[in-house]
Amino acid sequence: METIVKNVERTMELLAVSQTETVQRWDKQTLDRVFQWTQYCQHVYTRFHANPTVRDILEKQLQVTNESLRTTFHGYTDITFSDLSQCQHLLLVGLLNNAAVPSSVVKLLFDTITVGGKYKDATGHCTELIEVKSACKVLSAIHLKRSTSFPGPDNDVLGMTLMEMLDILLSPATGGSKVGLAEKLLDNILQTCGENENFSGVVAAALLSRKNDKTATTTKMASEGVSFHFILDWLQQHHSLLHNMCSTLPIGLLMDLHQQSVRFRVTYGDMLKQWGSQLEYDVGEGEWVQMYTTDGVSFKTLSDHYRSLLGACPSTKEDVERELTELKVADGDFDVRGLSVWGDLLSELNKV
Amino acid sequence: MSQAQTGSMAGLKPQEVAFWLGKAVEWGQTESPDTQRDTCLHLGPLRAFLQLLLTDIHMRSSTTETMRTIPFVGQFLGRLCWNPYVTADAESRSLLLQSLWSLYSEEPLNAVERKANQWIRNVLCQLATEEEDSATHMLVKHMGLPPKEYNVKVLRKMVWLLVEKVGESCSSLADPNQRCSCDSVLAASVACVPLVTCPETAPLIGALLQRPVTCDKAALSQDFLDAVSSAYSRKCVSLEAQAVVSLWCHNLASLEGAVMSLLDSVLSNPASIPHNLESTITHSLLPKACSQHGSIFLIVNDIFRSMLVQVEGNQTLLSLIHTFTICFLRELAALQPQECVSLKAFFPHTPQSLLAPLLTHPSEMAQEAWPEHLAWITASLQRLTEEEEEEEGNRGQCGVFEAWFLLVQCADWLEVASQLLVSARPQDCGPLLWLLTFYHHPTNRGHHRTQQLVAAREVWDHLRSLFLLSAPPLPADRLQSLAELMSAVPQQPSLDSLLVVSLLGNFAVFSHNPLSGAREIVRMVVQRSGLVREAVCVLDMVELRLNRERASSSLTDRVTLRTRALRGTLTHMAQHDTHTHGTT
Questions:
Q1: Matching InterPro entries, A to Z (chain A) (predicted)?
Q2: pLDDT, tens digit, for every residue of B399-457?
Q3: Mean pLDDT value of segment A144-159
Q4: Which among A97, A129, A196 has the least Cβ separation from residue B148?
């Protein structure tokens, strides 16, 4: 443990130095070494991010080191534990923004990519980055038919990573369920990125990632339901996100989730009912409209959702029809248009 | 220096410059599918222009001079740096970066150079570290993903999704009324032109190549095929075997390129054959492609035929063709039964009567049956040659050439004939000697075949008497005449020296006289004639054939030992020779 702490400390010092004039003396060996240290720190993050004890120790040490480095280096930015996963990126940003770095060192980073060994050195690191990013841009421009594949590869990757993290945090195999940490994680993300549309896409991708996971091993299956349900639980408490997700996701994918999880069926059903109850009848237009909320769902969208449910499978069809009928009855069971959104929905659905 | 001041740009024509400047601006302005397509289609010429530009920059003595003579360079390079199609392609990216570095001054002398340095560093920093979407970046950080790993994973996911889409068969097959999406495959192939060298996108390149061409619109862009072909020949792309075969099906030029490349590597390095020959050929993936597509086999053979006409009597080439055919037949046998096509389709020009007998491998029949089989083959060939000599005109010639070509392809039978000659009785050696002579001298130019047969018989007599002797000393006169027969006198029509060496080798290996005696004979004859390398080659071929027939041959152990021992003697001789006499 002590070694790890020392090594992390050392890397932080190197990171700080990389932004000063001392780098004038750096050469290929130095660069390679520093790169390897940043990789080490990233590895430390991966190993211990779900281990509260070790994480605590490291976070405390980081605070101490930050303080001392702050006094030594002018304009120093603190490094937190979560920054450790971005270590290499931070190094790169520091180096490339530092005019004092010798051009020979920068040239190494942009050299032609060599087919490296297991521990890749720094040569060609930036070239590879450029190659990968450019390739992504080129490929994203290829539009094949029905290519609007929600949630999109970027959200997909993030979603899968999120699920993997939750698996580790919630699986009993890794020393006890850390529901608290998991909640904290999701809350944190929501706080910093909640405004971002992408986050609901990421959550959706996380939920959907289990759909395709037919080759789950037994250990994984144990936690498969756990992470999935955890997210749903958490979503219940963050209603706007859930609403966002359900209204932006293509209905087909919602049906997939519907099929996959009983819990989701309940959540989704409740969501639809809530949407329905928000609609008011505008006598002038002769339509059901959203009067009070700006991001509500239209009558048409609502009926689309219900139509898909009816087409899902016979038992669902029965349940949905029964439910809607009950609601209609509760509203007075009139067959006149405009009195009960549920009645009108039923008649809309029965038209085809 | 005044040349620089007049602003002349050596190698860069003003129209060219204007054209490319315009293109760079155009590509940067919009991101419509048309501009994307345009960029991909111009990638090749752009590379050439960038190379010219780079050369030009290198000629200048300083960045200040460059900025004065080609002031557009900064803007131009800057625009291209932000074009993902240019930066995705390995060569363009490399040229771009090299150009930038050429503009960098280690010791900036003035404000212009200092500014240029700063600009270059900025561009590089932005290219490598700029995160387009800060919101995504935050999410990435929350997930604990290093940005580079995130980008790689996203790329892999994109490739995977596209591979799936490309793998879908044409939807109009099931429902003719439905408009299929195959034209988007063409668009995809165009867009992939810059990506052929990127290792992560290799699965997509492979998927595009292997997509079954079931619909008119599912064609692949020619630029794409050319790009893949060029990258493959430069070994800049790793494709799986089936993708390469598909590439050759789509693009004749790449197939021809592959064949020429194989021929080049083998013919320019004859010392490495025959042991590496088989692996070199298999590695080229050509036999596999030939077994799956008869048309490919026909094209390859056409190339071989024209090479044979160009380089007459080249033993390396003959061995190559022979080994190639062996690899091909092996691949063919490994195919699933339902994919098998009758052999006739692969050898359409060969006289049918010879096809089955020659394609049957010696190991597929008992050794006792060999003489009769060879007699039959020889008789057919003799008949064929006689018929053609009677006939006038070209039609006849083709039949003999094709028969000879098949013999070259199935040269195992030839080696069997040589082996049988060791133990043949005088009355049986006729057909075998005819076969050998025919192989080495297929055209009966000047009607010398009769003379050649006589010479062959003489050689055989000499060898027989030499090797049937049980005790030294060896008759010097016989050795001398043998050596003379081997040293070709250019003007006279003589027997191919390789024929003699081949017989010599076979006698040495397969006869029953003591090894020491055989060694001595070989050593003396080869030394006098100077054909050491050829003799070693013969022994190698014998050993390889024996390895191929391992299961059926009962002679193997004794013979292999002899072969190796003799080879050792000769190699030793060769080394000694090069030390004392120089290369023969």
A1: FANCF, FANCF_C_sf
A2: 888 889 999 999 999 988 988 888 888 888 888 988 988 888 888 766 778 888 888 88
A3: 71
A4: A129
Tell me the one-letter amino acid at B533.
Answer: R
- Place B50 in a pLDDT band, splitting at 50, 70 and 90: very high
CA proximity to B142, closest of A47, A176, A238, A193? A193
Rounded to the nearest 5°, which phi and psi values hold at A282?
Answer: -95, 110
The shortest CB-CB distance from B155 to any of A49, A135, A146 is to: A135
Sign of the torsion angle spanned by Cα atoms B454, B460, B463, B464: negative
Q: Which residues pair with residue A279 across a beta bridge? A: A290
Report how far residue B316's alpha carbon sits from residue B325's, in angstroms, rounded to the nearest whole number: 14
Please tell me the distance from the alpha carbon of residue B546 to that of residue B563, in angstroms, as a whole number.
10
What pLDDT, on the 0 to 100 scale, is given for residue B366?
85
> Residues of B with CB below 8 A from A137's CB?
84, 88
Give chain B positions within 8 Å (CB) of A127.
93, 97
- Sorting pLDDT into bands at 50, 70 and 90, what band is B99? very high
CB B232 within 8 A of CB B213: no
The CA-CA-CA angle for residues A84, A85, A89, to 5°, reads: 95
Q: Is A177 helix (H, G, I), strand (E, B) or coil?
A: coil
Omega within 30 of 0 (cis) for the link into A151: yes
Structure tokens at B143: 């997930």
- Write out the two tokens for A17: 């130095």
- Helix B222-233 to helix B241-250 angle (10° resolution) is 130
- The verdict on A100 touching B (C-beta cutoff 8 Å) is no
The residue type found at B44 is G
Give, for A289, the enclosing helix (H) or strand (E): strand A287-290
CA distances in angstroms from A176 to A44, A180, A224, B543, listed in the order given? 20, 11, 16, 68
CA pair distance B467, B459, nearest whole angstrom = 12
Tell me which residue in B97, B143, B184 faces A143 most closely, judged by beta carbons. B184
- Paired strand residues for A280: A289
Among the ranges B170-184, B349-363, B513-527, which has the highest mean pLDDT value?
A: B349-363
At B232, list the tokens.
């493959």
What are the structure tokens assigned to A53, written together? 């004890």
Residue A120 or residue A313, greater confidence? A313
Residue B311: per-residue pLDDT: 81
Residue B328, helix vs strand vs coil: helix
- DSSP per-residue letters across A325-336: HHHHHHTT---S
The pLDDT of residue B386:
84
* Residue A96 forms contact with B (CB below 8 Å): yes
DSSP B549: T
> B393 in helix, strand or coil?
coil
Residue B379 to residue B398: CA distance in whole angstroms: 18
Spell out the alpha helix ranges (H) of chain A: 2-17, 28-48, 52-72, 87-97, 103-109, 125-140, 153-170, 179-193, 197-209, 218-236, 239-248, 251-260, 262-278, 299-312, 314-330, 341-351
Test A192 with B138 for CB contact under 8 angstroms.
Answer: yes
Which residue is listed with tokens 């809530």?
Answer: A274
End-to-end CA gap in chain B: 56
Contact of B500 with B485, CB cutoff 8 Å: yes
Mutate to test the interface with A, among B36, B107, B113, B158 (most CBs of A within 10 A): B158
Query: What confidence tens digit (pLDDT) does each residue in B473-499 have?
Result: 666 676 777 766 666 544 344 567 778
Q: Which of A132, A189, A202 to mutate to test the interface with B (most CBs of B within 10 A)?
A: A132
ipTM associated with this complex:
0.88
**Percentage of chain A surpassing pLDDT 70?**
89
Does the distance separating the beta carbons of B33 and A154 come in below 8 Å? no
Which has the closest alpha carbon to A73: A141, A22, A129? A22
Q: Which of B101, B140, B185 sits opposite A107 (nearest CB)?
A: B101
